[in-house]
Amino acid sequence: MQCEICGAEIREKPISVTIDNSELQVCPKCAPYGQPVNKRAPVSRKVSPVARTAPRVTKRPQRNYFDILQDELVENYEHVLREAREAHGWSQEELAAKIKEKSSLIKKIERKEIVPEDSVRKKLEHTLNIKLTERVSGSDQEVSHFKTDTTLGDIVTIKRK
Questions:
Q1: Angle at 22 between CA 14 and CA 32, to 5 degrees
Q2: Which residues pair with 1 in a beta bridge?
Q3: Which residues are paired to 135 by β-bridges?
Q4: pTM higher than 0.70, yes or no?
């Protein structure tokens, strides 16, 4: 048999050592490089976690996320914003400083290049005392019941086994 570290021929009984969690059969010269393997290693006793007597049950109130979507931005929000800003006598830079946003953001909103995020919209509404959203009821929304595009389901026939 050969030593698993140096490769020398082992004439007597090989020594079992552990090096980096690997058990190796080595010669007496290489044995000091590892820890001797005990034939019977003690088993560590793990303490089981204490079971809770009463599990925690906290129910959060169910939130209807569609309520948030009932308000939509008015169509001419850029005109409403510009008129309110000019009525206060503020420039775009002054308004941006008051709501702690960049003036380029105000310019883009007034040119209708971007739609203001909810946080910016709320700041603008509060600072200028305006309303940029309107309540939309379910009956006002248009629902199309006609097929407009061809889908994969229109073309493919599914064969069942």
A1: 50
A2: none
A3: 71
A4: no
